[in-house]
Design goal:
single chain, 692 residues, 27 strands
Amino acid sequence: MSGIHPGKPWPLGSSTTSRGVNFSLAAPAADRIELLLYRNGSDGAPERVIELDARRHRSGDYWHVEVEGLNEGCCYGYRVFGPLAPGGHGFRPSKVLLDPAARAITGWDVYDRVLATGPSPNAHACLKAVVSERKQFDFESHPRPRHSWQRSVIYELHVGAFTRASDSGVDRSDRGTYRGVIEKLPYLKNLGVTAIELLPVFIFDPADAPPGRDNVWGYSPLNWFTPHHGYCSVDDPLQGRDEMRHLVAACHDAGIEVLLDVVYNHTTEGNRHGPTLSWRGLADDTYYHQNSDGDYLDVSGCGNSIAANDPISTQLILESMRCWALELGIDGFRFDLGIALSRGAQLKPLDHPPLFTAMEADPELSDLKLVSEPWDCGGLYRLNDFPAKRIGTWNGHFRDGLRRFWKGDEHTTWALAQRFKGSPDLYDGKAVAMGRSVNLITAHDGFTLADLVSYNRKHNLANGEDNRDGENHNNSWNHGIEGPTTEPAVLALRRRQQRNLLSTLLLARGVPMLLMGDEVGRSQGGNNNTWCQDSPLGWMVWNEDHCDLELKLFLTRLLKLRQALPQLFNPLIPARETTKKHPQDQTDLWRQWHGVELSKPDWAAWSRSIATSLHMGSHGALIWMGFNAHKEALNFELPVPASPWTRVIDTSLPSPKDLPEQPVPFRGVTIPMQSRSFVLLVAQDEVSNLRL
């Protein structure tokens, strides 16, 4: 046929050539394929249908064709024909399918998710892929910041919720968009974070939610290559990639890295009753874990699980990562339920999963920061033995240990000490290597910091599921009154506890992560699962009348302190633990643990206080930290300092004395600690020029 050529199997998706556009996609079991070309995204019928001949247009598992005269902006889809698989899965030629490697998508004005289910045709109500550019990110003009793991501080945020509020100070047209985040970069830089971790920006279907609700968080991708259209400031599918590039470039210019929370473990197609949009209609039993009857195996909690052990799935995920890293410039990934990607046939956990092996061997991905959740919904939890050397993990034990200690639970002092010094009990007796553990207290799924100290139980009725959704075991404490209060004593205690938790997080060994808005006391009214709340309940707070500015000041100074003294608070080589004062040499960094008496830590179940000191050689203590979660004040003995003590933090004091701009001299061989408070003393020579 004139203007139709065999094309090439690589690159995947659609790409421009000197004559037109090359199309390529995987469909191993298909009998035949039709390429549908549309004039625009709103058209109900294709302008042209091109049938791919298996003899001319197939190479192995890939179908391909080159069409002359086409350009960027061309809208297209596929019909794929073949047998149905066991369980009723397989090919649905009545459905128009998205190219899984498309870099742009259109047709939202006519799209109907319901019509993508069942046997009925949906050509008049389908989404279309759009041929787009594949230019590389300009790293020469906007180089990666490349912060070391030692100095990294991650700030998790939702692109839409971050600037959606009318009082965000962002232009109306840019609220809730990539451009809106750019306007707030000075805020993030002044706060002191080094990286932002964006909740999913892979394009997702907002209609993938129960009736009457929207999918707001986006943990159910429609495609792994396309920036979400809802975060773009203009209604043009070809502009999404440039807006994402502009955000990344602005972040790089500000010295801030961009990490993406990516969902490769499942898709928006759901279970067998879900819509046929892309993967399901192309290679159902290739992309999804299934049993011998064709039923989906689900360890994502969302109806399906991607078979990342399959070579075609592995290739598609790697190509997606290269797209975001090389074309759009992002600096790293956080894998949602990432351990699910290590499962093999029949969900068997693999020690050498193909995806992770290929990922770590790929030189184009070698300079990225990689982090994963070490658990999935099938009960798999691999922390120390996570099957990838370069991938760090969220440390859920750190979150739980800190929450329980400051809440005053029994059996918590030992756990606090372990988490604080790098969780050696979880890593074969050795403090975790830098970058292998991301420490957190709060994240998007769960209470905010303010709610963690204000509610004993979740309050999720606004989600429409009769409070059944969301985590039930939060290790939270309302301090005597559930929710908002004007009681001064309760407010003071909550204020102190937030500072206790933040201090422990930021001064512990590892990579800390903060949640959007925790720095200003953002509350979600006790809702610990705002996945469907595109409302003030889930938005960032900008109105200073509703912000805890004293807490923000505390955190800003705390971050400066951490960055100023990384060799003390987050050393590359962890301090040697010892119970005796016998330094190996004068550069030997060693730690001791104490109770109210020196060198006598109380690890008993009833103990709710502990202290630690850091020493170098025989010069004396460089720092001393006291953690008192007891309901009463205690008096602690102090070690001899290397130079006179200065008080840097005392969370029992009012702002800004709790963390003053300059450390305050402290004299004495003991120090009184108020109930439920944290104190940091630092030797004067270590902070002589420090201004916070």
